[in-house]
Amino acid sequence: MKIKYNPHLKELARQLRNNSTKSEIKLWTYLNRQQLDGYKFSRQKPIGDFIADFYCNKLKLVIEIDGSSHDSIKVQKKDKLKEKYLHEIGFQVLRFRGYDVFNNIEGVVQSIRECILEFEKIHTP
């Protein structure tokens, strides 16, 4: 499925990839090069008017890492709009705190694997 996106976000997504947060870098070491159960993930992927931290087209999955900036009401409202849009176009969204990525990466990866297993259970004949 071809994902439509606002072309003005392409450069911002590139900048975000080049300036990833430490928690994004840590999770990327588990997602990069199809290491997580053979699924291809992209990072900082424009989708519609938003940029997803991590994205897997085959799984229809977006993974968001929320740092302390996501504690503000303004950012939480934007996150809800983003999540609503992603659900409307058929994506599941998993959210993790940056703190959890650093202090419980095994639990974060296990949660992603459980999502993958659910997807495979539904979509495997």
Précis, in short:
This protein is of the alpha+beta class and 125 residues long. Helices cover 49% and strands 20% of the residues.
Give me some keywords for this one.
single chain, 125 residues, Endonuclease, Chain A, four-stranded mixed β-sheet, 5 helices, 4 strands, globular
List the helices and strands and how they pair.
Elements: H1 9-18, H2 22-31, E1 42-47, E2 50-56, E3 61-66, H3 73-88, E4 92-97, H4 98-103, H5 105-123
Parallel strand pairs: 3-4
Antiparallel strand pairs: 1-2, 2-3
Task: Describe this structure as you would to a colleague.
The protein has 125 residues and is an alpha+beta fold. It has one domain: VSR Endonuclease (Endonuclease, Chain A, 3-Layer(aba) Sandwich). 49% of the residues lie in helices and 20% in strands. The protein has 5 helices and 4 strands; from the N terminus they run ααβββαβαα. It has a 4-stranded mixed beta sheet with strand order 1-2-3-4, sandwiched between helices. A hairpin with a 2-residue loop joins strand 1 and strand 2. The longest helix is centred in the last third of the chain and has 19 residues. The radius of gyration is 14 Å and the shape is globular. It starts with 8 loop residues before the first helix and ends with a helix. The mean pLDDT is 93.
